[in-house]
Amino acid sequence: MDRRNLYFFYRNDTIESDEIETLFDLAEKNGFKLVSDDKDANIIASIGGDGEFLQAVRKTGFRDDCLYVGISTGQLGFYCDFAINDKEGMVEATMNSQIEVRRYPAIEVKVNNESAFYCLNECSIRSSLIKTFVMDVFIDDFHFETFRGDGLIVATPTGSTAYNKSVHGAVVDPKIPCLQVSELASLNNNRYRTLGSPFVLSDERSLTLKVVQDGNDYPVIGFDNEALSSRHCKQLDIKVADRRIKTVKLKNNSFWHKVQRSFL
Ligand code: NAP
Ligand code: MN
Predict the structure, then answer these.
(1) Is 140 a domain residue?
(2) Counting ligands in written order, which one lies closest to the CA of residue 156?
(3) Residues 248, 50, 33, CA angle at the centre, nearest 5°?
(4) Most buried by CB count within 10 Å: which residue of 5, 38, 54, 60?
(5) 48 closest CA partner among 87, 18, 75, 26
(6) CATH label of the domain that carries residue 58
(7) What's the 194 CA to ligand 1 centre distance in angstroms?
(8) What's residue 91's pLDDT?
(9) Which residues, if any, are the signal sequence (predicted)?
(10) Kind and range of the H or E element at 47?
(11) In whole angstroms, what is the distance from residue 233 CA to residue 219 CA?
């Protein structure tokens, strides 16, 4: 397969068509071949924000044999290294090999022991009722705690700056393959107790959440920016996935540059 087969992923309603045309021309002038099926691509470029990048990875099947690239239509985010307005910057970067490949850990989730789903930001599970939601939390086979409250977020390192950060989880370097578990409004009193702080698990561990079957067992399960259609849930098995998502890194744009740019 040609290594310069390029597929653009975007929503028609969000981007001007002449802007897309300009980008297509630019790509072809620089030796890329545009393909109309993402399966033929070895580079998949999303156009939009981080949310669009997450969709691009999800809709193309979390491939580990291609390079994903984020082109931002607004401010540079966490997954977008290029800005649509900076066309010279894009060309220059590809020409002068200012690009390194980096690999981002993803997580693998099995719901009720069925087929696996992948997440690049996080898997979240929360109550769909105004009633406490109860889960037994196992680390490997060890019963660690019984959670009562709204739900839990299990984030990847790159997802640590998203939902996880809003609930005071730590920002984690993506060079550390791990899972971070953080709580959504846990009940903590003389009867019920959870750790109460986020915790981080190594890629050698697995996390099992057994939903207590007490009537509140149709939780909302989210994989990045997509919700699983409402269904009966008994168990989630979560671990760091074997596959990683490859993307580009420009010089002077490490993860920590992005954290500084976004938050400081
Ligand atoms: P959204 O609700 O439109 O976006 C939430 C915001 O998070 C957007 O500004 C988005 O950037 C940004 N974002 C996405 N991934 C990020 C990351 N890894 N680090 C830092 N910021 C990130 O939904 P969306 O754009 O489709 O993004 C989905 C993500 O939203 C979910 O995976 C979850 O992490 C997050 N979320 C957060 C909360 C919360 O903080 N309370 C609640 C639900 C979901 P762009 O504008 O560039 O897309
Ligand atoms: Mn968004």
Answers:
(1) yes
(2) 1
(3) 50
(4) 54
(5) 75
(6) 3.40.50.10330
(7) 27
(8) 82
(9) none
(10) strand 43-48
(11) 7
Task: Say whether both 119 and 156 belong to one domain.
Answer: yes
| Residue 7, both tokens | 């597929």
CATH number of domain containing 162? 2.60.200.30
Residue type, position 180, single letter:
Q
Residue showing tokens 């190594």 = 202
Beta-strand pair 33-34/5-9: parallel
Q: What pLDDT, on the 0 to 100 scale, is given for residue 242? A: 97
Does 208 lie in the same domain as 142?
A: yes
Residue 261 in any domain: the answer is no
CA-proximal residue: ligand 1, atom 26 (nearest) = 51
* 92 and 116, same domain (yes or no): no
Q: Which two tokens stand for residue 163?
A: 């939902």
pLDDT tens column, 205-258: 999 999 999 999 999 999 999 999 878 999 999 999 999 999 988 888 899 999
**Number of structural domains the chain divides into:** 2
The segments of the chain whose pLDDT lies below 50 read 1
Q: Are residues 61 and 119 in the same domain?
A: no
63 and 138 part of one domain: no
| Ligand in nearest proximity to the CA of 53 | 1
What is the separation, in whole angstroms, between the first and last Cα of the chain?
A: 43
Same domain, 75 and 124: no
Sign of CA dihedral 79, 245, 161, 100: negative
115 lies in a domain? yes
Provide the residue range defining the domain that includes 142: 106-242
- Judge whether 226 is annotated as a binding position: no
- Phi and psi of 212, rounded to 5°? -70, 130
Question: How far, in Å, is the centroid of ligand 2 from the Cα of 2?
Answer: 32
Supply the pTM of this predicted model: 0.96
- 3-state class (DSSP) for residue 262: helix
* 186's tokens: 């846990």
